[in-house]
Amino acid sequence: MAAKIQEDKHAAIIKRLARSLGFDFCGIAKAGFLEDEAPKLEAWLANHYQGKMAYMANYFDKRLDPTKLVEGANSVVSLIYNYYPDNKLPEGEKDYKIAKYAYGKDYHFVIKDKLKEYLHRLKEEVGDVEGRAFVDSAPVMERQWAEKAGLGWRGKNSLLLNRNMGSYFFIAELIIDLEATSDDPVTKDYCGSCTRCIDACPTDAIVQPGVVDGSRCISYFTIELKDELPSSMKGKFDNWMFGCDICQDVCPWNRFARPHEEPEFRPHPEIPEMTRRDWEEITQETFSKVFQKSAVKRTKLSGLRRNIRFLMDSTDEKIKGQGED
């Protein structure tokens, strides 16, 4: 009985601290081996859905078992942090587009700082706590843990969906040795018969409900792939030059998305003013200035130029084809 009271107390502290640091939702799951996920991950890799993201095949055991990442781990704390913008960048038919998560400062820096503070405060309140903080930076199956912690369910586009705020959020974890009362997982699929994300994906990357062929995803092509983009995909990127939000934009649950309150996620003031020509003629000086601390730096200027050139070629071929008609 005393142990249960102590675990409840720890859970209450964990959630209070999460709210105080700006996290929208916080859930707790018992650390352990993700038995149900092992065959799914194995099949996903066997189908080569990781494309050239070779790192996805690394640390198979650690992806499935957080106790291999943090010795003596008892709890996986999952956290949600909103990034839905109050003002979207232009997304017209002729506009080059950037995924909303990359508008402002790289979320790895913003959220990692919060997680460090989180661990510090947690230790102040409950004493010695061993653990590690993760935000898309290690082999942690974040969506699966968030689902087990009751924060949502995985939609047909494989993203975590939350009934109160859709899917425009980052997921982070604290894997700690502190014992805390677990939350009940979400077991119901609230997507029902809806297939909007599957129908809308221009590259047919969603091969079955909940399974995405990463090697066909626009985000993979524009961010992860370092080679030249395949000509078979010309005309299918809908002018996305970094990432893609199509499967989220069409999701009915994102009608509940509300603007974030994180100043660091606002775009550099020059970005909303950039025209199509500005993007096509972007210089290293401009790139370095407007994307100084942005996730867009992952592509480097050469990668962004490659993506824009590919979109320009796609447009030229479309115009040429219309002329021939």
Automatic annotation (TrEMBL):
[4Fe-4S] cluster 1 binds at C191, C194, C197, C251. The active site is at D136 (proton donor). Pathway: tRNA modification; tRNA-queuosine biosynthesis. TRNA binds at K226. Cob(II)alamin binds at R63, D136, N157, L160, I171, S219, C244, D245. The keyword Oxidoreductase applies. [4Fe-4S] cluster 2 binds at C201, C217, C244, C247. Its EC number is 1.17.99.6. It is found in: Cytoplasm. Its cofactor is cob(II)alamin; [4Fe-4S] cluster. It catalyses: epoxyqueuosine(34) in tRNA + AH2 = queuosine(34) in tRNA + A + H2O. Keywords: 4Fe-4S, Cobalamin, Cobalt, Cytoplasm, Iron, Iron-sulfur, Metal-binding, Oxidoreductase, Queuosine biosynthesis, tRNA processing. Coiled coil: none annotated. It comes from the Bacteria. PROSITE patterns: 4FE4S_FER_1 (PS00198), 4FE4S_FER_2 (PS51379). Binds 2 [4Fe-4S] clusters per monomer. Residues 182-211 form the 4Fe-4S ferredoxin-type domain. Monomer. Belongs to the QueG family. HAMAP family: QueG. Catalyzes the conversion of epoxyqueuosine (oQ) to queuosine (Q), which is a hypermodified base found in the wobble positions of tRNA(Asp), tRNA(Asn), tRNA(His) and tRNA(Tyr). This is Epoxyqueuosine reductase. It comes from Echinicola rosea. The gene is queG.
